[in-house]
C-alpha cells in the first residue's frame, strides 16, 4: 500500500471515527424500522463524503482567497483535533447527546445533523482533507476518504447487531484507542506545520 495513501486512510479513520460514532448512530436510530436505519446510514455517509470532497478539491483556492497559508491551516487542523481526542480518551465517547425517548425522529434531519455534520465531516475532517489534498493530491485524499466512509456506512448499517454483540463497554474501549491515535495525528499536524513555517 502506498505510504501517503495509508497515512490518509489512518487519518480519516481516526478523525471520522466510524467505530466511536456507532454509539451515536445507534442512539438516534434504534427505534427506527430497518429500512429507515439504512436510509439514515446512506444519507449521513453520502452527505459527509460529498462535503469532504468539495473541501479536498477547492480547499486550496479557498485558503488562497482568504490569504491563509497552508502551514497555518495545518496547525489549526491539529489544534482542532486535540480536544475531541482528549475527550474520547478520557470519557470513551465521541459526543454527548441527549436522550430522545418518545421523540419523533426525522430521518433526514438526524442523518444530516448531527451525523453527517459535525460527527463525520466536522472541522477536523474538513481541515485534514484540505491539508492532505495539498500534500498528497486530491485523488489519494478522496480515495482514502471513500474507503473510510464505505466502512462507516457498513458499521452504521449493522449498528444494532454490532451494539448487541460487543456491548457499550467494548465500543467505549475502542473509542479510547482511536482517541489516542487521533491525539498522535493532531500533534504530528501541529509539529509538521510549525516546522515548515519556521524552516
Which structural category fits the helices and strands?
Answer: mainly alpha
Low-confidence stretches: 94-104
In the residues, how many domains can be counted?
Answer: 1
On the 0-100 scale, what is the average pLDDT?
81
Largest sheet: none
Helix content: over 70%
User: Could you tell me the number of beta strands?
Assistant: 0
Global morphology: globular
> Whole-number radius of gyration?
17 Å
Order of helices and strands: HHHHHHHH
Number of helices: 8
Q: What share of residues are in beta strands?
A: under 5%
Distance between the termini: 30 Å
What does this structure look like?
- By secondary structure, the protein is mostly helical.
- The chain has one domain.
- The chain has eight helices and no strands.
- Helix 3 packs across helix 5, helix 3 packs across helix 6 and helix 6 (123-136) packs antiparallel against helix 7 (138-157).
- The longest helix is centred in the last third of the chain and has 40 residues, at 159-198.
- It starts with a helix and ends with a helix.
- Residues 94-104 have low confidence and may be disordered.
Amino acid at each position: 500500500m502506498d505510504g501517503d495513501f495509508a497515512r490518509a486512510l489512518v487519518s480519516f479513520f481516526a478523525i471520522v471515527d466510524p467505530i466511536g460514532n456507532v454509539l451515536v448512530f445507534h442512539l438516534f436510530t434504534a427505534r427506527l424500522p430497518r429500512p429507515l436505519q439504512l436510509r439514515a446510514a446512506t444519507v449521513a455517509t453520502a452527505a459527509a463524503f460529498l462535503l469532504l470532497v468539495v473541501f479536498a478539491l477547492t480547499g486550496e483556492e479557498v485558503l488562497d482567497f482568504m490569504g491563509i497559508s497552508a502551514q497555518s491551516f495545518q496547525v489549526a487542523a491539529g489544534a482542532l483535533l486535540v480536544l475531541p481526542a482528549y475527550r474520547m480518551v478520557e470519557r470513551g465517547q465521541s459526543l454527548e447527546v441527549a436522550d430522545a425517548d418518545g421523540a419523533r425522529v426525522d430521518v433526514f434531519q438526524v442523518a444530516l445533523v448531527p451525523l453527517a455534520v459535525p460527527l463525520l465531516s466536522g472541522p477536523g475532517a474538513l481541515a485534514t482533507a484540505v491539508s492532505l489534498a495539498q500534500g498528497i493530491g486530491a485523488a489519494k485524499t478522496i480515495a482514502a476518504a471513500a474507503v473510510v466512509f464505505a466502512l462507516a456506512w457498513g458499521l452504521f448499517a449493522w449498528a444494532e447487531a454490532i451494539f448487541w454483540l460487543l456491548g457499550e463497554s467494548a465500543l467505549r474501549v475502542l473509542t479510547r484507542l482511536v482517541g489516542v491515535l487521533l491525539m498522535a495525528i493532531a500533534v504530528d499536524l501541529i509539529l509538521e506545520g510549525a516546522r515548515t513555517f519556521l524552516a
